[in-house]
Amino acid sequence: MLELSKLESSHVELKLEKINLGELVTPIIDNLTYLLKIKKIKIEFYDDESIIIGDKFKIEMVINNYLTNAIKHTNNLGTIKVIIKDKALIIENTGSHINNDKLENIWMSFIKDDPDGTGLGLAICKAILDLHQFRYGAVNIKNGVRFYFNA
Description:
The protein is of the alpha+beta class. It has six helices and seven strands; from the N terminus they run H-E-H-H-E-E-H-E-E-H-H-E-E. Strand 4 and strand 5 form a beta hairpin. The longest helix has 17 residues, at 56-72.
């Protein structure tokens, strides 16, 4: 809650630097290997070596949240695609869709599709991405859900 309050107050100074998205994503995936192995989830990683300008620590928080949510909502033996293309990060997971009535509201505090979650993760992501003035969203796709942001 404290982190979200700080971010929403607009009193946060971003430490902007050049970030290679692929180099930022790779260790996050490595740190989540154990969870991926438990559910036997396959990761497909595509990287065009996009460079963005952003606060590395805060963008790392967004990517970590997107990936951990994807793992939670991917069925055993499912697939997660991580696509970096044209200064955008796209994470797609196979699994059930998000109810259309919840899709627009998932970025708000305490809205959750996970009974074990706090409902703050995507609200924090929204605040970080708004501070960066990045475009972002979530959409249902044929076999699952896609979360993305674009610098």
